[in-house]
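Morning run. Coffee first, then this:
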Amino acid sequence: MIRRIAIVAATTLVGVPLLAGVSSAAKNDQLCTSGEFCLFENYEYNEPDHRYDGHTRQWTTGDRDYGDNDWFNSNDNLDNEASSVKNKNPCTVVLYQHPNFSGAASAFKPGAWDPYLKNNNIGDNRASSHRRFC
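And here it is:
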């Protein structure tokens, strides 16, 4: 009986990191909710005319290369396409110009929003990766 419990416990512990990795991915649903870091294709969070149209992408963790990410509900790649950002994540998130967290960078503290990335270091349509700092 003790041996069986140890095997189940070991299996459960081995599964925890895998489950944590799966559950840490944000549901990509065009909504930017608590705990998420969100990119928007257009300035002002895709709402220049106070209507929601355009591409979005959300994360709860970092991403070292946007080259393998598409915008929500689209086959359009988001690499070098973001124009605005919301950080509803509890950590500071740094957005980088190049994959693997390199190049020009801009940091967004928890709760920070930027309606037009052109006005900071990362610039408009230049983001390729981001990393969380907690």
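Residues 2-23 form the longest helix (22 residues). Good start to the day.
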